[in-house]
């Protein structure tokens, strides 16, 4: 990543999304537990395993025949809930905490950077402000900004 200057970080939307995702973590953990119980890596593998075992073409019928309809229904419900969010199993570590990579990506989503043009203007303004602030208080009074937004020597102060 190139060295970019941060203009602002939108903390509120970041915190809102992070909280929404945190609320979904329990479903990913439940999904992990269910998949571990049925000895599968994901829902598709579970459905395929059910169909291969029963020789049926419909996973719901296969689950019903094998007494796994509750597990299948719950996995479908969890998948549906998680489909609305941008959160996947690999975004969590084994303890159910967000991974560093995931948090960095979420942070980046709400970070706004200065463009090159904005940085040029910002650097000019910083230089002007630094020069102005370097003047003592009496000399600062000798400058003003007129109605045209131009800085000029104050015509009302005579030396």
Written description of the protein model:
- The protein contains 7 helices and 4 strands.
- α2 packs across α3 (59-66) and α3 (59-66) crosses α4 (69-83).
- It has helices at 11-37, 43-54, 59-66, 69-83, 100-109, 116-134, 137-140; strands spanning 6-9, 111-113, 143-145, 151-153.
- The two termini are 54 Å apart.
- The protein folds into 2 domains: 6-113, no CATH class; 116-153, no CATH class.
- The protein is mostly helical and 159 residues long.
- The strands form 2 sheets. It has a two-stranded antiparallel ribbon. Strands 3-4 form a two-stranded antiparallel ribbon.
- 7% of the residues are buried.
- The mean pLDDT is 91.
- β3 and β4 form a beta hairpin.
Structural class comes to: mainly alpha
Share of residues in strands: 5-15%
Helix count equals 7
**Succession of helices and strands:** EHHHHHEHHEE
Query: How would a crystallographer describe the biggest sheet?
Result: 2 strands, antiparallel
Strand count: 4
